[in-house]
Structure formats: structure tokens, C-alpha cells
Amino acid sequence: MAEQFIGKASEFKDGDRQIVRIGEDEIGIFRHEGEFYAYSNFCLHQGGPACEGLTIANVEERLRPDKTSMGLHFTNDMNFVCPWHGYEYDMKTGCHVKDKSVRLRKYDVVTKGNDVYVVA
Amino acid sequence: MDLIADRGRRVQVEELNTTKLLAHAAKQTRDKKFDDVLVVDVDAHHYENESFGEILPYMENDVLKQLALASRAKGGRGNVAPSGFGYQDMGGRVTRYPLRSSEKTDEKGPHRDIQLGNRWMDAMGVDYSCLFPTGMLSIGLHPQKEMEVELCWAYNRWVTEKALPESGGRLFTMLSLPFSDPDACLRHVETFGDRKGVGGFMVTTVRPKMGVYDNAYMKVYRAIEERGLVLSFHSGPSWGDHTFQSCNRFLSAHALGFSWYNILHCTNWVVNGMGERFPKMPVIWIESGLSWIPFVMQRIDHEYMLRPSECPLLKKKPSDYMRDMYYSVQPMEIQDMGALETTFRMMDAENSLLYASDYPHWDFDLPSTIWDLPFLTDKARHNILGGTAHKLFKLPPRNEAQKANLIKYGNYTAA
Amino acid sequence: MSSPKTTKAKAAKPAAKLVGAAGKPASDEGMSAKDKANFIKAMMEGLKPAAAAEPAKKVEILRKISAPVPVARKSNPTSDDALKLAAALDAKFAGGDFEALTPEATQALMAALCKLYAANMEAGDKFPVVKDRFAVTGTDAMILCGALLKAVDLQVFELGMWQSWSGV
Known about the structure:
heterotrimer, A: mainly beta, Rieske Iron-sulfur Protein, 52% strand, B: alpha/beta, TIM Barrel, eight-stranded parallel β-sheet, two-stranded antiparallel ribbon, 10 strands
């Protein structure tokens, strides 16, 4: 594993992402709320481009104390969705939003000054 | 091109390009050497409503044609064919739905649907696809029998005269039958049955009232059997059906609906001894997944033993007749591998299962879903991906390696 | 050519024997200043054979995808006038004046907004008809919906049918 330079931090606005190929790996690098996250771009379902679809807020169903439903709402947590079939992954962990055991390979991202590196 | 995300956010994306979208599928095709395997996709789709401008003029009745054409005129708010409601695109998450119109094709090339078909077939390593319409799968919900007949007629003429001839033989079809009118069905079989690219006929099972055993249909089945063609039943969802009106999520109506309509009509087919009446006609049950098959086998075998007087035509258990028929694999429920293996054993998948992608619909399956199953023999892999369909539809191998594999696994039949 | 097995054994050797950068035996005798510095660094940090051995990989940028942005329709003089008119009507209403507009003016405004909103929806530009659920009351909404349906001679069941058939 070595640090691979992938770009300047100043070129990444919050919410921007890049898809890079490093050797055999294809990696999606997201900038979200100031942090960088990098995951394998191969969806664990059928191998779709997991990091290239919509980023979309997580959906929750709110219940009142009496267990009645208040319906569906977007939360502030952000997910990204494989465009092939809709497998939805948590931006901060790379886990499928409903099954934490389904987890995309995560890559460390290192910033040195304005330079961004992925460890791959 | 903008994509709408949550709460009014929009993201700028490139136009859709199927080849780019499926680049990872193409990698699987290379890695797994699918070019050496004959892969037949028995259920893929196009959006025929985008070609209604070309299709509707083929309608025969001037008055109905005028109604259909006028309802599509600018500002018109009518719908020609019934359309279900639902969220196939998952709120835009499955991006090829909202982006579909942005995809560029060669205006001087073959029909747009053929070009798109070639893109996804090439990426997935599919050699031949059976092309089905999308909206027409709801044609059984049309309240006007005569409009159903007219629309099927127009579509079937268009697809056999205009679309398929431009596909270079890689796309074939099983044509929609206007099942509400048995006489019209017979006319369709007699008119279109011998046309190039017609592998058989399809009945959409999304129909509130349909008795597949009705005497009125025997002439239709006989005509199909005599021509050596295939009869298929294609399922679909119908959220508005009273059965599903308590479903408050599309997931529930979709997951149950696609299995339900085939469960219903397959049960009627088997119990009424249709397998005894038309033993030479291959029958395929399409797009219901697989998990319903062991359920129905267990369920009707059980009642068959208790109530044999209600199915005197049957000479063996209902599940035996089910094993005599064929099933398309998609959407394959790979959740409990043990259950899936049992399903394959119970249905004799090696001889009865046919690969289907259902592309471009949201829950499509790649050939690797079959290829990577840990419990399959090589023969089963090859049979399911294309060997069995090769025998059913007489589709020639596209290269020597495919021919060698067909011979190796005992599937090769010269066209 | 050496077999992979031999290569592997060779690769393991330097770590065991601690060879200096120039490939010479690691003794103090005859070491350059650079070799010494490397030797001390290796003693302090430990050897990192994998990192040292790994060649630089090619990084290829396949795609850049920009952040999603909230897109608001740009303000324009017509919208500014409409907002002013809405504010004026709200102020009159708050003051108990229900007759700020003549029936003819109300009808014209209602029809224009109805057509405009429907056209936006059909064009795929979908936004809520009012800003939030407190902009109008439930009773307000029912009175208006009922009146609109009556005006075009539609029954509620026809609305339901159309919604289910058209997917709207």
C-alpha cells in the first residue's frame, strides 16, 4: 500500500467526488462535510459503479411515542447509491444502509497541505 | 443534464451512455470469458411508448386509431395504453430512468432501440435477447377489448416489420397476444407465427380475469404447438389491483405482484392439465423470480393428494408438470444460498431455467449472477445461460468456441 | 531466468542481512554519510520493505462529479410583482378585508396560476404547490380543490381515476 496523489484539496468542493483508477482498483473519493472518504467503486451486489450514482439523504420513518407513524423524512445523513440497482451506502462508513455486514472496501485518504492522497 | 436529488438539490451529470454505465459488466464479460459461452437473454425490454408515433399508424380501425393518435397530440392528456403507477426509478436513484432520453444514438443507424440493445448486450456478453415491450405488459388492464386487439396488432406489426429486421438477428421476440379476444389471438398466431425473429407468443399475466384453461383458448395453444413455437407468460405489478391496495410501499406491491400473477395462472395451468393437453408446446413463466416455485410445488402437490378428483387429467404430481415447463431466472433472490440451491434442485434448474436480464429495468441481473453460483455444475451454468434457450429458439452459436461448448454440454442442435 | 520461488527468497534476504542503500554489507567501515543516515533511520523506524519495494502506480482520473446544488429559479420582474401582489393580498386578508379582489380578478388569477402550475408539473419541474403545510389550512385546500373540480365538471372519483391512470 502506498500513498497515491489524486489531486489538490482546493479542487474538491464539499460534495464533489472523483472516480480514479489506481492499478487494478477503481476508487470513488468523496468530499463530504469537509472530510474525504474513499471506497471501492465496485458495488457488492452485482459489481456496478457504486460511487457514481446519486448522493442522497438517508430516509427515516419517524414514530410518535404511541408508535403511530409520522411518515417518511429525509435526515441529515448522506448516502450514495449505486446507479445500477439502488444499493445505498452510508457516506461515512461505506456500509449498506440496512446491512452493516455489506461494506465496500474503504481506502484511507491522507491530506498533506493542499495535496490529497489515497492509500492504495 | 440535471438529476434531481433530495430536497430540490440537483446534480449536473453527463448524458447517459449505456456502454459507459455498463463498463463494469463489460469487465465481467472479459474476465469470465462470456464470449466463449452462448448467452441468451429471454427477457429484455424496450420502451415502446417512445415509438408510438411509428406504432399507432399500424392500427387497423380508423376510429380507434384516431382516438389513439389524438390522445397523444400536443396538450392531450389521455393515455393510449394503461399505465401502472409506481416508482421504478426509485426516486431517481436508478439514474438510467431519468437520463434515458439524454442518450445519443446514431440517427443514420438502425432504430434507436436496436442500437441501445446492442450496447447492453455487448457489455453483458449477451448474444441474443428476447425483446419485450414495457407499457404493453399492462395491456390486459385495458377496459376495451377491441383497443387491446388493435394495440397488440399495431405493436406486433411494427416490431416484426420495422424494429427486429434492423437488429441483424440478435434480437428476437415472443409477441404479445390480445388475450381478451381468443379469435384475435388465433389471427395473431396465424399472421405472425412464421415471421422471422418470432420465437413464440407472450401473454401478460397482469389480468384481473383470465382463465388460461378456458375452452376458447385451445385453438390458440394448438396453433402455437403446431408451429413449434413457445408460449410464455410474462408477469408484472399492478398496484391498483384490489389484491395490492393495502400495500403502502411500492416495494411490497412490486415484490408480491411480479410473483403473484404467475403463481395464479401457473396454478390454473397445471391443475387443468394443460401439460397433458399440449405436451409438445414449451411454456415459459417469466419475471417472477424463483422463490415462488418451491412454494407452489409444495402447496399444490399437497392438495393434489387430498383432492385428486378435482384434477382428473393429471397423470403425475403437479410439481412434475411444473418441472416440464421453463422459468426465466430474473430477478433471482440470492439471499439464502441454501434455499436457492434447494429451489434449483426442486425445479430441475439444469433443464428448466433460462437466463434473463430484464435490462434496462431497475432490477436487472447480469450473467454473472448465474455464473458465480457456487453450487452449479459447469453443464448447469452453460445450460442456464444459453444452452437450453438455444434448443428452444434454435439460435445459432456466434463463434466456434460457443459451438464447441454447446456440443460439450449436449445442447447443440443445428438450426 | 530465475523462478518466482528464487526471486521471493532473494527479496527476503536484504531485510535479514540489513543491506545498506548501495547494496554493501552494513558495517561502519566504508559507509557513506547517506548510508549511515539510512541505517540510523532504519534502526529508529524499523524496516518498511513493502513500502520501499512498491513501485509507483499509475493514477488515472476517470470522472469528476460535481456537488449537487440547490437550484432556485432566478428571480425576475414578473415574480417580483407576483410576490408583491401576494404580500398585499395577505396584508388585506390579515386586516379582515376579504374583498380586496373582485370575483373577476380572483377568477383570472386563479386560472392563470392553475395553468402555470400544471404546465410546470407536466414538464417535470415539480415543486410543492405551497411553501409549507401551514401556508393554507386544510379547509382552505378542500374548498379550493372542490371548487376547481366543480368548475370543470369533474367528480372526485374521476380525479382518483385520472391520478391512478396517469401516474400523477
